[in-house]
Amino acid sequence: MNKNISVELLNEIVQELYHKYKGVNDGSLATYIPELAKAKPNHFGISITTIDGETISAGDFEAPFTIQSVSKPFVFGMALEKHGMDHVRSKVGVEPSGEPFHSIIKLDTDSKRPANPLVNAGAIAMTDLVKGTTQKEGRDFLQKSFEAYVGHPLNIDLSVYESEIDTGHRNRAIAHLMLHFGMIDKEIEKTVDLYFRQCSFIINSSDLSTMAATLAKDGLNPKTGERALEERYVKSLLTLMLTCGLYTYAGEWAFNVGIPAKSGVSGGILGVVPGRMGIGVYSPLVDSHGNSVRGVKVFEELSQKLKLHVLEKNP
Ligand code: GLN
Rounded to an integer, what distance in angstroms lies between the CA atom of residue 118 and that of residue 271? Predict the structure, then answer.
């Protein structure tokens, strides 16, 4: 990307992309968490926050949605800060799984570790590492840590949270399998409860871009100046986001887009352009990989137009 690109030009491009893709109605709402099926299919927000803390947005950038799997790299970061690299790596791999996000198969083979922290199994293992001794301690820790990234108080969507509590048996099964292999602590319900809570934080596309910009600025929130993550761990989060962030579309994403990113099944995608900007897109119609259809299109075009692929030589 040309480092001198102006905020005005960025704004023009963002508005153009919003109008270009708002009529795309491919994909469908996630229904396996019943509450997510209530999202508005036409909602579409795009936001970019620069590392100077300036945010530009288009469309429904204030539309609230639950963070879902976009929370995963951040909890991996929290686990790294709490336990250090060696301990965390003994609990989770860094290999793209080639499997859907909720896969349980990879655990049984290989090293008994989940493939990586961005599939459900690895994410639950990371939540297990940060859960603390009491339920309140774990909840408060997550709340405070995510608030450092967004720069304001966060709420939980209780109906989505309860919907996952009622229906998230596959995630419980994953947790039981990990317990069988001695990979997580025996208080499974506590861990799974906390995992469902972390997935239920309410954010919007503007928040996504601030969280991404915080990683783009080496872990420092560009709006508040608060440190959300130790600088030495930023690279580890970004590497996993580039190789594993979009599930079974991760290879295509690295090839076509080349921006470290994370998607969630509620329709958010967050992307980090190191040293430059954070990008957030929300549109709840998702494809068969569980990635926002309009979101993928916006990222593909932004990457090509602005030359944001991390392996592309900057002008
Ligand atoms: N809470 C969801 C789940 O565990 C998150 C999945 C996702 O966003 N891909 O199933």
Answer: 14
